[in-house]
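Inverse folding, one chain.
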């Protein structure tokens, strides 16, 4: 007898019953996001960085020297894999992390105050500019934090820690009536 599986987001149970009309401070869970980890081989960091920034419809998140996350809501994982394979294995290695990562988007006028409760990064607009990203600890969980707009950030976290991080972020945002839901 055939078995039918339905795909459920790892945060489906965390959000049930709490979805609300977004307030000015909102935590959005992105559903179908392609996420790739890219590592440049020694000596090829600069040309890999340039090649990644020239890819269309993707966002490149800096993780460390010679290491990036390539993220897209519109380009399918197999398309990104084909583009990254053109880099050549002597220059770079990549891994599809799409099923192993969760992407959260948080925005609002006091978003820095919310994030300041759970990360040690200095998020002042002059220091952490739009487009900048960093690996860091958020609520004691390793994550990648990127500033995507004036008062907007994206958090990429491993799937197994997403529930804990989501619950903690909601708690940190309670003071500002942070709402949450699927994007």
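Residues assigned per position:
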């Amino acid at each position: 007898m055939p078995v039918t599986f339905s795909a459920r987001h790892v945060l489906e149970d965390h959000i049930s019953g709490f979805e609300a009309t977004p307030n000015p401070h909102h935590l959005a869970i992105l559903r179908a996001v392609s996420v790739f980890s890219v590592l440049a081989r020694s000596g090829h960091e600069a040309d890999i960085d340039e090649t990644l920034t020239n890819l269309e419809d993707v966002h490149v998140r800096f993780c460390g020297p010679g290491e990036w996350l390539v993220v897209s809501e519109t380009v399918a994982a197999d398309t990104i894999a084909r583009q990254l394979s053109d880099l050549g294995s002597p220059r770079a290695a990549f891994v599809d992390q799409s099923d192993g990562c969760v992407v959260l988007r948080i925005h609002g006028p006091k978003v820095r105050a919310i994030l300041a409760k759970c990360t040690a990064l200095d998020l002042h607009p002059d220091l952490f500019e739009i487009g900048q990203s960093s690996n860091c600890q958020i609520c004691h969980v390793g994550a990648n934090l990127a500033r995507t707009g004036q008062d907007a950030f994206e958090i990429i976290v491993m799937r197994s820690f997403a529930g804990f991080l989501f619950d903690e972020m909601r708690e940190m945002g309670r003071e500002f009536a942070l709402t949450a839901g699927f994007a």
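The chain has a mean pLDDT of 92. Residues 4 and 10 are 18 Å apart (CA to CA).
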